[in-house]
Amino acid sequence: MALQSAALAESESGAAADPAGEATTSQGPARVWLRVLRAPLTLTGVLITLVFLFLAVIGPWISPYDPSAVSDAASAAPSASHLLGTTQNGQDILSQMLYGARASMVVGLGAAVVTTVLSVLVGVTAGYVGGLGDEALSLLANVFLVLPSLPLTIILAAYLPHSGSLGIILVISVTGWAWGARVLRAQTLSLRKRDFVEAARATGEKTWRIILKDILPNQVAVIAAAFLGTVTGAILTQASLAFLGLTDVTQWSWGTILYWAQVSSALLTGAWWWFVPAGLAIAVLGTALSLVNFGIDEFINPRLRQAGIGTKKAQRAQVVKRRTKRVKQRGPVVARPAGAPFTPDSTDVILDVRDLKVDYVSDGSRTPAVSDVSFTLRRGEVLGIAGESGSGKSTLAYAITRLHKPPAEISQGEIVYTKADGGTVDVLGMDEDELRDFRWEELSIVFQSAMHALNPIMRVGEQIEDVIIAHRPRMTRQERAARVVELLGIVGIPADRAGSYPHELSGGMRQRAMIAVGLALDPEIIVMDEPTTALDVVIQRQIIEKIMELKDRLGFSVVFITHDLSLLIELSDTIAVMYGGKIVETAAADDFYRRPQHPYSRGLLASFPTLGGPKRELTGIVGSPPDLRRLPSGCAFRPRCPLAFDACAAEIPRLYQVTGPDGGTSRAACLLHAEGAPKSAAPNGPDATDGPDTTTTNELATGEMR
């Protein structure tokens, strides 16, 4: 595919003609930190925290006295020789504060690290793995959650009175990890069902890589907030245990200072300088950590970052220029040659699905979501699949790509893929490694709702590059960058947008970015699951034109799933209509439009208004789609069908071949086409006439679509 020059030309022109681009130019890590530190509250919190950390490190070295040394200056108020005064025994309180800062900070940070690691390991593992592992880890977390933490902490601390900071860290970690694990499990359960995680699985990413690159980065704000909260909580807990005398009171910490002040009745004697500094230090540090927490979301979430800090158009142009230069030096990426254009009489089958059945299994019951579905996809063909919500379209797409997960289960059928060299592959017989090589190399998927299918915290270029890394580990970084630029150019996105986050792109550009991800490895088949959902008609038109242009140029086959029949008729070579988990009609797009053979298809077409000709009443289809757990006897469409007769309640119709007046053939699962059916009610019976304006005796119009 020698498309690189065109892609670069389009990229350069796009960069030059994008006046708003500067506002969405990506920021490097240094600029993100700059933006965070420019927030007054966050900067204040960071500075205060750094001061405490600095004092904790150098405190014992700059301490003016030994904190345990006794002197004659008993209960002395703050003075030049003792800046924070002395205790009842003449010990210098400033020295005790400096020594105590290290102990308190070590406990706070140590407990936070151990607690956070335990929470992440248990919560993320339980949420992502699921099954028995999830149940076991969740049970463990629930046990610790129901235990009263304060009494448990006191009991454990009482048994470890001389273990020092390590013992306190262990006590706090054991009693505090469960809550964070529960929160992270809930977040992981939500994230693992998001389209961008499914896309990562589909591209062949390994589980550990998905967790590290897709799951954890989207939870950094939660993890960081929990970490900072644990630091504050651990310092308070350590101070409380020390104040109660449950720790080694000979080891100086802020809590130990408060303990001796309480034992010596400092409040009653008016020695405020004994207890105020320690209490104030704990309060100030807790406030500082809270202020730092305010800036975490802005640092983690690209939506909250204000773009353009210190950015100049000249700098941006230089970045694009350097990237373009590297691409030109590397030369074009060798790609799979395009096949011959598709023709209606083609017999070159690339995907053969036979008697496919997908069930949802739960509590010993099986709900058929896809039943006995068979179809063929020819090389270069666009197969459109239509139907109401719940008809099994997306389940079929996930089954074809083997992305279905429990409780979905393929209980029968075959999916045979034919390679370009004529060899065949049993898709259902592939193991995980074979599937990883098959997906995106031979078959890719474009998920619906691009905003959810794209990882919100990764730049668009990085997400395209991830697919290449997963399947082309030997490609150099420069070669991958060249391929990203080429793919963006192919789908009509300027090269400088590779550094943009998904929220910085329009809906149409996000969808084109998803198509670029699908094209990354030049697959032979692309499954598009409602790629134009939630887009306005103008953007839909642009997406469809781009898909058709790329199909004709690159020669791949498409399985296009949508609710929009008018869109499907214009785009597809062949149309398959699903109802109740079955295919009820297949036909060439033009034959389907002019002579739909199934009453359900005629009802779908009658639901769309005409763009020309005489006005008519939209009839639509009465009733609702069937409950797949309790399908009606016989034909699933019978309760809603105005042409149903007695046999429809007793017999499940098979796909009958129907030949039109001009020789065109289609297949329809309707008993009206069986022998002995009442011909007066049949779609092509005596009461029907050929042409787009026909109506049956029951007034089911085909409708004018174009």
TrEMBL record:
Question: Where does the chain cross the membrane?
Answer: 41-62, 105-129, 136-160, 166-184, 220-244, 272-296
Quote the SMART domains the UniProt record gives: AAA
Q: Name one GO biological process term.
A: peptide transport
Domain ABC transmembrane type-1 span(s) in chain numbering: 105-293
Recorded hits in Pfam families, A to Z, give: ABC_tran (PF00005), BPD_transp_1 (PF00528), oligo_HPY (PF08352), OppC_N (PF12911)
- Tell me the membrane topology, using the record's own terms: Multi-pass membrane protein; Peripheral membrane protein
Q: Which residues form the ABC transporter domain?
A: 353-605
Q: Does the keyword Nucleotide-binding apply?
A: yes
Q: Where in the cell is it found?
A: Cell membrane; Membrane
> Mind listing the UniProt keywords for this protein, alphabetically?
ATP-binding, Cell membrane, Membrane, Nucleotide-binding, Transmembrane, Transmembrane helix, Transport
InterPro entries the record matches: AAA+_ATPase, ABC_Ni/Peptide_Import, ABC_transporter-like_ATP-bd, ABC_transporter-like_CS, MetI-like, MetI-like_sf, Oligopep_ABC_C, OppC_N
Give the span(s) annotated as Disordered: 677-706
Keyword Transport listed? The answer is yes
One GO cellular component this record assigns the protein to is: plasma membrane
Bias type Low complexity, positions: 681-698
Q: Could you list the residue ranges forming a coiled coil in this record?
A: none
Q: What is its main location?
A: membrane
- At the top level, the lineage of the source is Bacteria
- Enumerate the GO terms in the molecular function aspect: ATP binding; ATP hydrolysis activity
Family, as annotated: Belongs to the binding-protein-dependent transport system permease family.
Q: Provide the protein name.
A: Oligopeptide/dipeptide ABC transporter, ATP-binding protein, C-terminal domain-containing protein
The organism's taxonomy opens as:
Bacteria, Bacillati, Actinomycetota, Actinomycetes, Kitasatosporales
